[in-house]
């Protein structure tokens, strides 16, 4: 891994100059790995805005199941089919979609080896591989345990979401649903708390004597006051949130016995367990030497090029985004900037300046939505990102039923809009 980083850095100047000189007048090869919010956005944006690029997308799944709106599936408010999307729209735009798994990146030779044996060459690479679950970070929680206590934090083919939904349906009324929530950073910071809300929504209708125990490795979380206002209004007495300061950090899991054990030895027995463990960038980013000690990929914040591998632009949840959350909207916003930067560098032009946007809706109930909005901008050196002063905001607090109803509707419109943009 260290040798790979050294080779990439030593050849950085040549790696940057060759595509710009050799491909400026022809169809340069843009390869995209990962067909989620970052990768699909990058591929579609490249074809719409830079038709001179030859764009290929590598994605092992024939259809993409979104993590956004999966919590509504758990609540019984959506079907899996409604959050599952194919790639025919991208094919119609001229993207070559390759159904295979990328196994290894050679950033010096600018080649990617696929599991099926094919090797692809590129001039610029957009890497949007998502996350990996750090199995073993919690004692007792491995892949086998996840088939008993699901994490449901990587959509994949939807199997984990379906499993958790079946377990909720099978749980007797009066049972306890236990969640283990990790410390920052992790994918979708408000996601666990939306999940708590929507599981409570399901239980209130079907198993009203049941409880939710949320064990958290943090003392605060995204949109906390808004979520807790909603819990008090909609699900009084049903949800117990235990912060880090009150021994909320889960350190051991006994999936067979249904036990979540916290830092100071408290054993919580639950009927259904949802363990959201610590995470890192996906395996290919780690194996390719792109990550640092945090497990995430440091990038130039103007271009999203990996610090360890010029020419490889890392977007989505795999990178270190500074204060930006690991959200679907951020993945899409930054993927477009990465493509614009890659196109400019291939033509020998200046990288365009751009702000990055985040809009994050959460459902607290079927007809109860809350949101947060942010705008971020990188510094001139590409070493940091800061929120633009006075650019953001959250939903107002208070007894505002029409506001909550409208935000739930806006959330539905946002989901329809962004998935149409990604998948056509």
TrEMBL record:
Superkingdom of origin: Bacteria
- A Pfam family of the record is FCSD_central
Q: Which UniProt keywords apply?
A: FAD, Flavoprotein, Signal
Provide the FAD/NAD(P)-binding domain boundaries: 29-141
Report whether NAD shows up as a keyword of the record: no
Gene3D superfamilies given for it? FAD/NAD(P)-binding domain, Flavocytochrome c sulphide dehydrogenase, flavin-binding domain
GO terms, molecular function: flavin adenine dinucleotide binding; oxidoreductase activity
Q: Where is the Flavocytochrome c sulphide dehydrogenase flavin-binding domain?
A: 353-423
Residues annotated as domain Sulfide dehydrogenase [flavocytochrome c] flavoprotein chain central: 161-277
N-terminal signal peptide: 1-22
Which positions, given as ranges, span the membrane? none
Designated name of the protein: Cytochrome C
């Amino acid at each position: 891994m260290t040798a790979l980083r050294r080779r990439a850095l030593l050849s950085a100047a040549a790696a940057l100059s060759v595509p710009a000189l050799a491909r400026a007048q022809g169809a340069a090869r843009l390869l995209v790995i990962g067909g989620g919010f970052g990768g699909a956005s990058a591929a579609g944006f490249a074809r719409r805005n830079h038709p001179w690029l030859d764009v290929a997308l590598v994605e092992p799944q024939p259809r993409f199941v979104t993590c956004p709106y999966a919590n509504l599936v758990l609540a019984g408010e959506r079907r899996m089919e409604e959050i599952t999307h194919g790639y025919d729209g991208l094919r119609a735009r001229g993207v070559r979609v390759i159904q295979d798994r990328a196994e290894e990146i050679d950033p010096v030779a600018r080649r990617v080896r696929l599991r099926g044996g094919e090797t692809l060459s590129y001039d610029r690479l957009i890497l949007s591989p998502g996350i990996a679950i750090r199995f073993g970070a919690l004692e007792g929680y491995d892949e086998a345990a996840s088939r008993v206590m699901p994490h449901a934090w990587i959509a994949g083919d939807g199997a984990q979401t379906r499993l958790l939904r079946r377990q909720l349906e099978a749980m007797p009324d009066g049972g306890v649903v236990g969640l283990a929530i990790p410390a920052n950073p992790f994918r979708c910071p408000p996601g666990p708390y939306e999940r708590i809300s929507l599981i409570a929504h399901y239980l209130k209708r079907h198993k009203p004597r049941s409880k939710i125990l949320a064990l958290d490795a943090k003392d605060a979380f995204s949109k906390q006051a808004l979520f807790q206002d909603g819990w008090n209004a909609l699900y009084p007495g049903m949800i117990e949130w235990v912060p880090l300061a009150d021994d909320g950090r889960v350190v051991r899991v006994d999936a067979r016995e249904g036990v979540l054990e916290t830092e100071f030895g408290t054993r919580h027995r639950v009927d259904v367990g949802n363990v959201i463990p610590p995470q890192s960038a996906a395996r290919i980013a780690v194996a390719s030497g792109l990550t640092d000690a945090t497990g995430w990929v440091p990038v130039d914040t103007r271009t999203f090029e990996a610090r360890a591998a010029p020419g490889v632009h890392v977007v989505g949840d795999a990178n270190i985004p500074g204060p930006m959350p690991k959200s679907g909207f951020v993945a899409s916003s930054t993927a477009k900037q990465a493509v614009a930067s890659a196109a400019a560098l291939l033509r020998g032009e200046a990288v365009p300046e751009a702000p990055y946007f985040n809009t994050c809706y959460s459902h607290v109930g079927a007809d109860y939505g809350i949101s947060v909005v942010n705008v971020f901008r990188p510094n001139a050196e590409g070493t940091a990102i800061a929120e633009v002063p006075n650019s953001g905001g959250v939903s107002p607090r208070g007894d505002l039923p029409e506001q909550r109803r409208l935000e739930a509707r806006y959330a539905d419109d946002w989901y329809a809009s962004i998935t149409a943009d990604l998948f056509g």
